[in-house]
Task: structure prediction
Amino acid sequence: MQRFMLILAMAVVAGCHANPEPATPTARPLVTDQLPYGVARTDVRAWHVQHGWCMRRMWPSTDEFVVCDAIHPYMNLRTPPMYAMARYDASNRSIAYATFTPVPCRMYGTCDRVYGRTVYDSEHDFVDHWSGLRAHLAQIGRDEPAQVKGLPSMQRRMVDLLVDELDRRFGAPTWRDPNDYGETWATATSEIGLFVGGDGAWVIETHELRPRTLDASR
Result:
C-alpha cells in the first residue's frame, strides 16, 4: 500500500501552464497538480522519463507511460505496474489524463477480485486501441451498467483513500455508482472521475477539460 501511495504522488513539472483546477496543500497530489492541462507533449514525456516511467503505446493524440522503476518493486510481484495516459489537442498540449492504478495484492495470499457478474475490462472502455484515450471520460464511466455486488476489501480501502481527497478538493460528487464502482466530480472547466475496472484489479482516475473550455481557448 505504501508503494501505491508513493507512486501516485507525481512531482511538479517546472514552467507548466496554470492549472484551472484548485491548487491547495494536499495529502495526495493529483496528476493535474503536477502536469496541468496545457503542458507541451514533449514536457509530459520528459517528466515521465525522468521519474521512473517508460513509454509504452503511442497514438497521434495520446501517449501511454508505464512504471518501469525496478529499484522500487511492489511487495507482491503479482501486482502489475501502474500506467497512465495523456491526450493532447491539435497543438500537442495536454487536455486529458487517465491513471490506471493496480489494487495492491495482499502480501500473503491471493489478490482480491470481483466475482459474479462480468465486469468491464481494465481500461473501462476509456481507450480506443486504434486511436488512444477517448473523449468524455467521465461520461463513459457513468454509462457503464451498475454492478450488483459491493467492492472487496482492498478495493474498498483504496477507493476510500482516493475519494476522501477528491471530495476535499471538489466537494460532493455529481454522480455515484450505488455499489461504489465509480464517482465523478466537476469544476467550472473540467470533469474528474474515479472508477473500479477489470475484475476489480484496477482503479482509474480521470481528469479532462470540458469541450466548451477547449473551444473558448482557441
About this structure: Confidence is low (pLDDT under 50) at residues 1-19.
